Write the structure tokens for this entry.
Amino acid sequence: MNSTSAAEVLPIQENAPKAMKIARPSHNIIGKSPSIRQVFTMVEKVCDTDTTVLVLGESGTGKELIAQALHNCGSRRGKMFVPVNCGAIPAELLESELFGHEKGAFTHALRTRIGRFEMADGGTVFLDEIAEMSPVLQVKLLRVLQEKKFERVGGTKTIASDFRVIAATNRDLEEEVRKGTFREDLFYRLTVIPIESPPLRERKSDIPLLVDAFFKRFCSAKQRQLHGISQEAMDRLINYEWPGNVRELENTIERMVILASGEEITIEDLPPRLLDQPLSHPCEAVINEIPDSGFCLSEVIADYERKLIIQALGQTEWVKNRAAKLLKVNRTTLLEKMKRHGIVKQP
Ligand SMILES: Nc1ncnc2c1ncn2[C@@H]1O[C@H](COP(=O)(O)OP(=O)(O)OP(=O)(O)O)[C@@H](O)[C@H]1O
Ligand SMILES: [Mg+2]
């Protein structure tokens, strides 16, 4: 998946002379909502530093994508990005996986093997699901973060490696510290720079963009010649709360592209769970009351704008010149806004 629009590409380095301006390598994070823009800003600010970053957020929100963006957009991009899923590797193996081991260190250690910290010399180690790390290993990780030096399991030689650590979790680490399952000193070491990956339900204005990108990708990968997605189906996709976040959306689009019966994806093709959820109108909530939990002003305004454009188009039988006149905007502005909101005429 390649990013295409200006907002998806990190800005050009500001101090470079004009003729030599070089765009930073782009990343694959799709989105234009205010909350994802904050993520882009953070990535841009910290990608060239060596500081440890902790990426927080619910499952499927794109934490690994953010970690890759930090690596690919920064000065370490020429070296390795080494992911380690701390939750998937058994505790007794994780130590040798991270630090490596010497021949004969344990029964099956037939050869010396370098670990992920050594492998990532000059690059980045991505410690995913960091909350799952055992207390013993947490102590060792703290030391290696402070000293960038360690010994292989069963070894005595001290090894130095210049790696950057990016960690991620979908757990509330502060709560884990309170419960005593996560070391407080390690927590502070990791949270020098926290980046929050926002849930999809809080950035619904990204849904049309993501749907469009996934739709194109899967149509091409599955060699399906579909025309698009009906407005009604798009409304349902925007309305759904996406507990599984972008991963759930991606899987849903893949499934629909494969199974769609007509030339276009319609509500008939949507999984039933998307149709069970009552349609909500966030803009009405604005008029009635602001919920106790608050809301993102720019998201609500974007929703309201979308609704008014659809209303104007409906009133003018989709004659865009007339709809633009009704809304007192240029035709091109209307077209741009329709594109941004993923508004297409229903068959
Ligand atoms: N903003 C985005 N733009 C494009 N694709 C995205 C975006 N966010 C997530 N994805 C896609 O969604 C899927 C899940 O993303 P990712 O694995 O980074 O999530 P995660 O937060 O690490 O999830 P988990 O906590 O379950 O490991 C991936 O296929 C990823 O490419
Ligand atoms: Mg992940």
Notes: The radius of gyration is 24 Å. The first helix runs from residue 34 to 46. Residues 6-198 form a domain with the Rossmann fold fold (CATH 3.40.50.300). Confidence is low (pLDDT under 50) at residues 1-22.
